[in-house]
Design a protein that fits this description.
By secondary structure, the protein is an alpha+beta fold. It is about 30% helix and about 20% strand. It folds into 2 domains: about 60 residues, 434 Repressor (Amino-terminal Domain), CATH 1.10.260; about 190 residues, Ribonuclease Z/Hydroxyacylglutathione hydrolase-like (Metallo-beta-lactamase, Chain A, 4-Layer Sandwich), CATH 3.60.15.10.
């Protein structure tokens, strides 16, 4: 399996501001009034022209529900996740999309593997999969957006023995394949190889059917949780508060060492996100 490249964080400071403003239902004028910061400065930061200094970041954090120190770190460009050794995971860029796709093996000594979020040019993806002659038993799809599933038909045709796993709310995005997909129910587990399993974790918020997959100490989060950020919200039933609550309740209770493999940006760990993600406080729950 490959060595990991250095990837940019998925969200800029402007992206973080935009998501928290949308989640808090604050416009530029309201945020300017709440922080005594000029509206033109906030507009510039939203466009990623510069970034707030430490004092400005502290003033922005409270009305937007962010943790002050963490947002100051992000605004200063002072945080990036540490290095991770991920010998069972191969990450590939899914061009022309800016998204991560993955192949994960059940164990070092087994050929059983799963494909996570098949997207991008089918010919490129299939060539990559064939270059790793493994026994693909599952096609795991975290949510319905094209940059995570628009190559599902080609991959399913090439690997007919691989079962598609996708939340039934989002499954219509893969067309006729939806009828064959295994639905996702909280707490259910699928056998994976001779001694591993895949835990299915619904985390609605980014979309109404967004889900994560946990395999041992690996967690594939799609666009639910990124290094230093969270996904935007595009669902009809669930939104920003649901997204944050599901991350707290379903993901932040996992062990610190759990590796997070997101749909965009670099890998991270649950412990790092619990301590450093500005969307959450310093007192996130642990069990």
């Amino acid at each position: 399996m490959n060595q990991w490249p250095t990837l940019d964080l998925e969200d800029t400071v402007g992206d973080v501001l935009r998501k928290t403003m949308r989640g808090s239902r604050m416009n530029v004028a309201e945020l300017a009034a709440a922080t005594n910061i000029a509206a033109r400065s906030i507009e510039a930061w939203l466009a990623d022209r510069g970034a707030p200094d430490a004092d400005e970041a502290a003033r922005l954090a409270a009305p937007l529900g962010m943790e002050r120190r963490r947002f100051q770190q992000r605004a200063a460009g002072a945080w990036y996740p540490g290095d991770l050794a991920l010998p069972l995971v191969h990450r590939h860029a899914q061009l022309p999309h800016p998204s991560n796709g993955y192949v994960v093996r059940a164990a070092r000594d087994e050929r059983v593997a799963a494909i996570v979020d098949p997207a991008g040019r089918p010919d490129v993806l299939l060539a990559l999969l064939r270059a790793h002659p493994l026994d693909y038993s599952y096609i795991l799809i975290t949510h319905k957006h094209d940059d995570h599933c628009d190559a599902a038909e080609a991959v399913a045709s090439a690997y007919p023995d691989a079962r598609i796993v996708m939340h039934e709310v989002d499954a219509p995005a893969i067309g006729a394949l939806a009828a064959e997909a295994l639905p996702i129910r909280k707490g259910e587990r699928l056998p994976f190889g001779t001694r591993n399993e895949i835990e299915l974790i619904p985390t609605p918020g980014h979309t109404d059917g967004s889900s994560c997959f946990r395999i041992g100490d690996l967690l594939f989060t799609g666009d639910t949780l990124f290094a230093g950020s969270v996904g935007g919200c595009f669902g009809d039933r669930f939104g920003y508060t649901d997204l944050l609550a599901n991350i707290r309740r379903e993901l932040f209770v996992l062990p610190d060492a759990t590796a997070v493999l997101p749909g965009h940006g670099p890998p991270t760990r649950i412990g790092w996100e619990r301590r450093e993600n500005p969307f959450f406080t310093d007192e996130e729950p642990r069990h």
